[in-house]
Amino acid sequence: MMWRLAGCIFCVFLSWPLGSGPSGAAAGAPEEAPEEQVRIEVLFKPEECGRRSRKGDLINAHYDGYLAEDGSKFYCSRHDKEGHPQWFVLGVGQVIKGLDIGMMDMCAGEKRKLTVPSTLAFGTTGKGPVPPNATVVFEVEVFSVSRGPRSMEAFQQMDLDKDRSLDKAEVKEYLKLEYEKGGKPREEPFYEKLLTDIFWKSDQDGDGLISAKEYNIYERDEL
Ligand SMILES: *[C@@H]1O[C@H](CO)[C@@H](O)[C@H](O)[C@H]1NC(C)=O
Ligand SMILES: [Ca+2]
Ligand SMILES: [Ca+2]
């Protein structure tokens, strides 16, 4: 499951309130002051601590969110989406900044308590039950850490003619396979819309191809 957009098959997209929407602090937050950091407390670390999470990794985790002020719970992934742990890509803004930061270097089985200042959470506007400027606390439990969706393996798999760039036909072929594997084949207009969206986001120079560089926007250290 490689494209973020295709991720809806297994709910990669974190719905509200974890996603950093336009009103989230991630967008246009000023430089963090030194005290505006995520406080990380490791609650449990398994003896066998395998792969540590890094930017671009695909993470599967549960998290509960509390308001620091009164300890009230405002979010619980165990009760959302039928209680399935959530999937997301770490470090790329799919979740609030505080989680992107505080969930680095975790292994499967590890539990942490993260205290996140509002600037790295829901900002000066807040969101839903989270009031403006609220410090929030997340209790997170990681179930799996794996290579991110934009791995070069995935790129090579998609690049059928091996010219180190992806055209629409190649991406479409891949998406179709992924959706069929997921048991949810779609109609043509669905793929067209998805492709338009993917290219709009990834084809930065607008030449109709996604180059390896454009594709691998956040995993440079793995190239
Ligand atoms: C939140 O913080 C901002 C920036 O410090 C401030 O301007 C604003 O008045 C605060 N809002 C509330 C509701 O406290
Ligand atoms: Ca190609
Ligand atoms: Ca391009």
UniProtKB/TrEMBL annotation:
<keyword id="KW-0677">Repeat</keyword>
<keyword id="KW-0732">Signal</keyword>
<dbReference type="InterPro" id="IPR001179">
    <property type="entry name" value="PPIase_FKBP_dom"/>
</dbReference>
<keyword id="KW-0479">Metal-binding</keyword>
<dbReference type="InterPro" id="IPR018247">
    <property type="entry name" value="EF_Hand_1_Ca_BS"/>
</dbReference>
<keyword id="KW-0256">Endoplasmic reticulum</keyword>
<dbReference type="GO" id="GO:0005509">
    <property type="term" value="F:calcium ion binding"/>
</dbReference>
<dbReference type="Pfam" id="PF00254">
    <property type="entry name" value="FKBP_C"/>
</dbReference>
<keyword id="KW-0325">Glycoprotein</keyword>
<feature type="domain" description="EF-hand">
    <location>
        <begin position="146"/>
        <end position="181"/>
    </location>
</feature>
<feature type="domain" description="PPIase FKBP-type">
    <location>
        <begin position="56"/>
        <end position="146"/>
    </location>
</feature>
<keyword id="KW-0413">Isomerase</keyword>
<protein>
    <recommendedName>
        <fullName>peptidylprolyl isomerase</fullName>
        <ecNumber>5.2.1.8</ecNumber>
    </recommendedName>
</protein>
<dbReference type="InterPro" id="IPR011992">
    <property type="entry name" value="EF-hand-dom_pair"/>
</dbReference>
<feature type="signal peptide">
    <location>
        <begin position="1"/>
        <end position="21"/>
    </location>
</feature>
<keyword id="KW-0697">Rotamase</keyword>
<dbReference type="GO" id="GO:0003755">
    <property type="term" value="F:peptidyl-prolyl cis-trans isomerase activity"/>
</dbReference>
<keyword id="KW-0106">Calcium</keyword>
<dbReference type="InterPro" id="IPR002048">
    <property type="entry name" value="EF_hand_dom"/>
</dbReference>
<dbReference type="InterPro" id="IPR052273">
    <property type="entry name" value="PPIase_FKBP"/>
</dbReference>
<dbReference type="GO" id="GO:0005783">
    <property type="term" value="C:endoplasmic reticulum"/>
</dbReference>
<dbReference type="Pfam" id="PF13499">
    <property type="entry name" value="EF-hand_7"/>
</dbReference>
<dbReference type="InterPro" id="IPR046357">
    <property type="entry name" value="PPIase_dom_sf"/>
</dbReference>
